[in-house]
Design brief:
Helix content: 55-70%
Number of helices: 4
Largest sheet: none
Shape: rod-shaped
Structural class: mainly alpha
Order of helices and strands: HHHH
Length: 130
């Protein structure tokens, strides 16, 4: 596109130097410049319209996706909520008991060592008994 514009300018200069082609060249170049300006304006308008349409369609998809998830869950003040907070020993024991009674039939605990629970939720004797 840029190369064509340079070639067109060189041809225009060459033909302007010749006396016979000057009126025809000026008429053609003025008509072509007007067409190019209108075409460029239409292209810019079309690109802007496509961009706005894309943004609007993306925003409606995002809002529809949020609507699928339902209501947002309420925030409860958990005692272990925070950077330096941790679970208490009783809740760890309850969780392990639920695992043994419900989850252990299908899920293994092969990646967890019982020695990691010593001092946190169980004593050494209780861990050995498991």
């Amino acid at each position: 596109m840029v190369g064509g514009g340079v070639i067109q300018q060189l041809l225009r200069r060459k033909l302007q130097s010749q006396s016979v082609a000057t009126p025809v060249l000026s008429w053609l170049s003025s008509k072509k410049v007007k067409e190019e300006a209108g075409s460029a304006g239409f292209r810019a308008f079309a690109l802007m319209g496509a961009g706005i349409t894309g943004l609007l369609s993306f925003s409606t998809v995002a809002s529809a996706d949020e609507a699928e998830h339902g209501l947002e869950s309420p925030h409860y003040p958990w005692p272990h909520d925070g950077i330096l907070s941790s679970y208490d020993h009783a809740s760890i024991r309850r969780g392990h008991q639920v695992y043994q009674q419900v989850c252990a039939s299908c899920h293994s605990m092969s990646l967890i060592s019982y020695r990691d629970l010593v001092g946190v939720a169980y004593t050494e004797e209780e861990a050995k008994a498991m």
